[in-house]
Design a protein that fits this description.
Two copies of one chain form a homodimer. Chain A folds into two domains: about 5-180, Formiminotransferase, N-terminal subdomain (Formiminotransferase-cyclodeaminase, Chain B, domain 1, 2-Layer Sandwich), CATH 3.30.990; about 185-270, Formiminotransferase, C-terminal subdomain (Alpha-Beta Plaits). The first copy, chain A, has nine helices and eleven strands. Chain A has helices at about 15-30, 55-70, 100-120, 140, 145-150, 195-205, 240-255, 270-280, 290-300; strands spanning about 5, 10, 35-40, 45-55, 90-95, 125, 175-180, 185-190, 215-220, 225-235, 260-265. In chain A, strands 1, 2, 3, 4, 5, 6 and 7 form a seven-stranded mixed β-sheet that branches. The longest helix of chain A is centred in the middle third of the chain and has 19 residues, at about 100-120. Chains A and B meet through α7, β11, α8 and α9 of A and α7, β11, α8 and α9 of B.
Chain lengths: ~300, ~300
């Protein structure tokens, strides 16, 4: 079975195309990884790259990107509207095929240790890789940003997990974390009553005591006379697409409404849909490596 | 989107391991294809190889295998219990990701023409690539086998689609076809009454006027006190896994029985399960290339 890790490194350059291309090229030139997407935002002065491969290959690619980012980005002169603490600002690792969240967190620790050692860089672990509960939340790690970090990095609650308790003069600090793949999943209802969609969203989202790893809002689809429960599933292994769908359908029924259709926006890991097929067919003993295309990825890995 | 064609060439050698390895090696050495499986049967004196890749690469690999098979197999001295007409006996092409059956049939015609031209070999089209209705059935194409073919190859109804109307002295003839991927799918019932499983199998299979592209038999799972409807789905685009499952479940209900669980034996194309997930979630506008792993195959293709 193929072991596939995704990483979505965010670095603090979105205005100089030559620099962005040079950093992205460090990933595209790495063997064993595929760059699926990348984009720059000049207002944020920040770029985001999506790459996938075997864990070792992904870590090597991200280290190569970090090396180039540190050579060419000086946070003392960096301005942008998006919060950031470092030149290579955030590196999330996402377990896809054949990996657990614990595998991704272990990879995050290894990457953090290596970046700290190689570049004398303070590195924080966040998300599912966090060692302190407060640092599960990335916004807490980034509090004060690059400019404010020097004043607090010596405090016990802000000590980096790896590297010196000293902000890197040009590169700041880096956050390395593990998280589930995010699935953007919307369910449309046959009612124009926005109150119903909002009520369902409040009920099912984690922050309202609903389903774990689910964020949800209610939206109006006025031109269709429908409403939508728009969700982000941040860990489909905790709440599956099917569980989210059925929670919305059940809550809608209780309000006298029903589901018209659903949609997945953007990419989705195979496993998130295969488990729904297996449930629907009552498949016993099904393994993802029975899927021909996943077997092929393995053969190529 | 990746375009993936599968081929499962059958050649008439299953006793001389060095010859089998040499022919298989022609596939494993071909660039752009993956050999997923191969096996030899000494009683049948026959070997079967499963390979997958982009259509062009698969055809090149199969031609390279045919070249080696023709050099090393002499049907005048071949004996085995399995019906055969040629050294490279049968080459089925199966559309997987991003290909239609029409694409696979077109690839079969191209391959048949090239093999006939290169080796002065009579080639028949069968299955979904057949030009004559009778030749859809492979057993009709192989009627009389190698030994009997010389006497009938001149008859209009047995004329090859490509190449001479003359049996190749050592290599006989070859059948090239297109077919759907075969899915082995079993549904277990909570009744020990074999009569019920057999009745359901008779009702749902194509030969009994049931679902297209479905073969089914009823079996006893005595040690569990259950029975099984054991199916081969020969074209999941005509009858999906979900349709077969629900047909069995409905027929069982009518007999007072119900489904315990189901199982897929061996490999299954991703699309066959994704469509069931899409149905179950009422997904609208879903495309297989939204699946991250399938996107990866594309990037590698």
């Amino acid at each position: 079975m193929a072991r596939l890790l995704e990483s979505v490194p965010n670095f603090s350059e979105g205005r100089r195309p030559d620099v962005v291309r040079d950093i992205v090229a460090a990933a595209t030139a790495s063997s064993g990884v595929r760059v699926l997407d990348w984009s720059s935002d000049p207002d944020h002065n920040r770029s985001v790259v999506t790459l996938v491969g075997e864990p070792e290959a992904v870590l090597e690619a991200v280290k190569a990107m970090t090396s180039r980012a540190l050579r060419q980005i000086d946070l003392r002169v960096h301005q942008g509207s998006h919060p950031r603490i470092g030149a290579m600002d955030v590196i999330p690792l996402i377990p896809l095929t054949g990996l657990t969240m614990a595998d991704a967190a272990a990879a995050a620790r290894r990457l953090a240790a290596e970046l700290a050692a190689e570049y004398d860089l303070p590195v924080y672990l966040y998300g599912e890789a966090a060692t302190r509960p407060a640092n599960r939340d990335l916004s807490r790690v980034r509090e004060g940003q690059f400019e404010g970090l020097a004043a607090v990095i010596g405090k016990p609650e802000r000590t980096p997990d790896y590297g010196p308790s000293l902000v890197h003069p040009t590169a700041g600090a880096t956050a390395v974390g593990a998280r589930g793949p995010l699935i953007a999943f919307n369910v449309n209802l046959d009612t124009a009553d926005l109150g119903i969609a909002r009520k369902i969203a409040r009920e099912i989202r984690e922050s309202g005591g609903g389903l774990p790893a689910v964020k949800a809002i209610g939206l109006s689809l006025a031109e269709r006379g429908q409403t939508q429960v728009s969700m982000n599933l941040t860990d489909f292994r905790r709440t599956s697409i099917g569980e989210a769908y059925r929670a919305v359908a059940d809550a809608a029924k209780a309000c006298g409404a029903s589901v018209v259709e659903s949609e997945i926006v953007g990419l989705v890991p195979a496993e998130a849909l295969l488990e729904e097929a297996a449930r629907s067919l009552r498949l016993s003993g099904f393994r993802p490596d029975q899927v021909l295309e996943l077997r092929l990825l393995d053969e190529q890995g």
